[in-house]
Design brief:
309 residues, alpha/beta, Rossmann fold, 11 helices, 39% helix, globular
Length: 309
Amino acid sequence: MEPEEAKCEDCSSASCSARAKKDGESDSDFQERQALAQRLCGIKHKLLVLSGKGGVGKSTVAAALAVALSGAGRDVGLLDIDLHGPSIPRLLGLSDVRATGTGGSIDPVMAPGDLRVMSMGFLLPNKDDALIWRGPLKYSMIKQFLRDVEWGELDYLIVDSPPGTGDEPLSIGQLIEDADGVVLVTTPQALSTSDVRKSVNFARQLNLPVLGVIENMSGLSCPECGKRVDVFGAGGGKDMASDMGVPFLGSVPIDPLMVPAGDRGELAEYLSSDAPGALAFRSLIEKLIKLVESDVSARDAHVHGGTDV
């Protein structure tokens, strides 16, 4: 027999805003907000993966974090809110899968390792269809992903957001009131780090802790001679994190094996290998778990202290 679902009115958390109606809030809006809060209450940690710059491998990083967390024994959900260009289905070999559901709820798509995944790519009739939506429709869809998907009990929900500081990251930052924080992705060159600085300030304006910066595409080890080639430079992400006073989680090198693995939907298999990028991601996950699952006061001091993790 399944346990009875907790009700907001029975919640003992004084900090939860869904316990009581807001001034001027209608009954239907209040009930909808409570339904969202009840769904999110079953998720311990919520991490948003953001970047002010496109083309930095943010979706690959988000998927890799989710897969690696699942491999570390955590119950994980991965939500793709890049509504116009959903990449998560392809990275996980789920491009031809379509979501199902009953009674107003949506079942997450299951990936290897019991990873629960939701993306706009699972709802489009054709994977090549273009989604032409303005802000209010995007907000409504993101809220539906959070409220109506049967996420169940999770240790982590990883949210992959499109680049920039527009509708989607703003919506998710407002809808998840108790997010643990954001992970920012950049490449080393100044063209990227200058835009990611804006994401740091975006997070601060929404009172979202910056858990750390990941420098992706950080150098290439030549497969022939072993010499390191800094294709996009090196160290820019670490320098930016230091300048902005946020933690630096680490670097992930360019790995020629990762791109075809992602294109084939074999990211999970790649991450279990001893390839340079896979080893780097597993190291990052160890740091992230230690940071997120540590004592809250110690974590907050570290997050706001701007030190290396």
